[in-house]
Amino acid sequence: MNPSAASVPAAAVPAPASAPAPTAPTGTPARRRRRWVEDDPPPVQDLRVVPLALGLWIGTAATLLLPASGGAGAALVVVGSASAVLGLAVVRRWRGWAVLGVALAAGIAIGSSAVQLAQQDPAFRAAEQHRYAVLQVEIAAAPVALPGFAAEDGTVTAPQQYRVRTAAQQLTLDGTVVASAAQVSMIGVGPAVAELVPGSLVRVAGTLAVDAFPAVPGVSIRLRSAPVQLAPAPAVDVAAARLRAGLRAQGERLGGDAGALLPGLVVGDTAAIDDRLTADAKAAGLTHLLAVSGSHFALVCGFVVLLTRRLGPRIAAGCAATVLLGLVVLVGPQPSVLRAAVMGAVTIVAMLVGRTRSAIPALASAVVVLLIADPALAVSAGFGLSVVATAGLVLLVPPWTAALVARGWSRGWAVLVAVPVAASIVTAPIIVLLSGAISVVSIPANLMAAPLVAPALVFGLLSALCGPWWPAGAEVCADAAAPFLSGIAGLAHGWAALPQATLGWPPGVLWAVALAGGTLAVGLVLRFPGPRAIIFAAGCGAGVVLVPVQVLPPLGWPPPGWLMVGCEVGQGDAFVMSTDVADTAVVFDAGPEPAPVAGCLRDLRIGTVILLIITHLHADHVGGIAGVLDDRSVGTILVGPDRTEPAWSALLAVAARRGIPVIAAGPGNRFSAGDLELTALGPSGGFAGTTSDENNDSLVFRAQRNGVSMLATGDIEPEAQRALLAAGVDLDVDVLKVPHHGSAKDLPQFLAAVSPQVAMIGVGRDNDYGHPAPSLLAALTEVGTGSVLRTDQDGDIAVLLDAGTLSAVRRGSLAAREPSRR
């Protein structure tokens, strides 16, 4: 035998051309005998554009996330790293690494240029000085109603506020007109603001402020008067606005969850969706169905392709592209919509071509184009979710669908199952990073909702299109969509109501990466089901779940699920109550200086303060008000009867400069800020002749959220405490903000009536008043208070719900999490 011939495996010897192909034994199809993960060899992926997109993304994000101080040094580190990678690539001839290095440097340049240009804009410089100015702006997106408070007492009202995203063209400052290209967030009230149409040109006047929360700094303006239209919007934008208004009208006619979901699902108008549906959809993993996303564009365009497929792929693709463009106009060309449209287009490309080899370069190219057009997307959670979800759809859905078909599933059902499962799995790490929780029911909820989305979306679009020209047809289509919309809402409520529908997860990037690693481990078992892989995956899964939850202390601030935070501001008070909107809160008092409360709110990521409640006008409660007002939107300032001068005039002046209404509150006034309910308990009038009339004039509020009751008391002293006891109001709460920094004057009978499980004391280290008094601490122990938190020893303090248990967290020692005896 020829030795060389003997060394060649038999499988490598080609069969004669005439030889028949091997067949499976009779009665056993070859496909059916093979494992589902081994159905067909996966196609070789074309990843050449991926390093470019990844490097550009990382470089831009790193630059935008750098703090203002020390940013240059950090940037040099990143540039040096990029140069090292590039040098290594040149030496070792690794082209992929070379592209990555160049893209990192390009991303740094793009991000830093965007920030520098924004900060050098004349409008931004005027905003830093809180100047009054006149701006000529183009409306970039439809007005959005701000989360606000609703007063149940008719004597306390405030107009609905709207935020409008605009692009500046001209700035008039002290009579001088200069060009401006700033991105301007406009806040105003009234129908003149609510009815603004994207594309129109208007002139506005008001006080400028820095809008520091966008990744690329911008400007905010609170209007002093109604905007003046200089040029109408293009006809196509006016028509789109009519369609959106008609759809909102149909939603109001339907009412209930179906009516609220109709404009949300079709055109992204979520104003009518209530807090309960929002919270339940979040718990059930169905939040993406409440507004427009890339999957919506893909569904509609896929439906068009299905209708036109017999006309050929080019005509079908052209029709889908036309519909895609129309959807962008209908919904509004805002960044989130354009991002969703691009990702939807990538999905359609994958569907038409039928090859993930073409879809991945298309996705990477879309990332590059979008980042160059809008660098702020690099740090946008929505952008990350869109990219990851699209990648999951184009990479995982085709092989999973083929595997299910090979096991006897019909192709339609296989796709219906594969799409939500793939999207849920790949987006879980980002979602847990944002919410601090894992939706256990997300996959089954999405599987059940998937058949409802397409008909609801199609009927909803038809209703919008018929609205201006055929009202009866619009009603018929809206009625046809209603059962599907109600079904989606019912699934959200039903799945969210299950015990342990969500599981808490430690905050921070580290644990998001850990979750991604655990998911990957499970995937390895499915792909390589050997004993070693199973053992490895089991170890990874146990580590990912048990180590963060059971062994290590929680990381980051604020803790997930926080309800109330006491800010460490020295000898003074500044307390924050959360709402169901992530960046929105109610603030009680502002401490003695601006910097501490500003830092506390920044760490809590609060961009909108619905209510700023100034309990009374002592400097340790109002001196830091600028720290609350600067760099964020403040809806209304509530005050009590205290009118101490000069603090009262100063408060009115600073509110007037910023265009913020100041409203007096009194007993019986009720307010809702999202799912946070507030009731004013006192005072019934100004005190006179007491040991401290100003302290006794403090506003007292009872708050309720997620079944937890809280009492904010300002600095009330014995006289005001006796008045509350005599009034017979409900003082029994879970959490007490202790009056007057823990003064010895707090009445034992008042503390007994409150009987808090957690007491929070705002107090300065080594203060001259002996706060908190030992007698006060002893009295709290006597009434059964489980946890006493004090900012002088604990730093920022928080109360939260953790798996249904009221818990306390001290920022100075996050490991010391104490379950209270609730």
TrEMBL record:
InterPro entries: ComA-like_MBL, ComEC_N, Competence_DNA_uptake, Metallo-B-lactamas, RibonucZ/Hydroxyglut_hydro. It is found in: Cell membrane. Residues 1-16 have a biased composition (Low complexity). SMART domains: Lactamase_B. SUPFAM superfamilies: Metallo-hydrolase/oxidoreductase. One of its GO terms (cellular component) is plasma membrane. Pfam families: Competence (PF03772), Lactamase_B (PF00753). Residues 571-765 form the Metallo-beta-lactamase domain. Keywords: Cell membrane, Membrane, Transmembrane, Transmembrane helix. It is a multi-pass membrane protein. Signal peptide: none annotated. Its main location: membrane. It comes from the Bacteria. Residues 1-40 are annotated as: Disordered. The chain crosses the membrane at residues 73-91, 97-118, 285-308, 315-331, 337-353, 360-379, 385-406, 413-441, 447-470, 477-496, 508-526, 533-552. This is ComEC/Rec2 family competence protein. It comes from Nakamurella sp. A5-74.
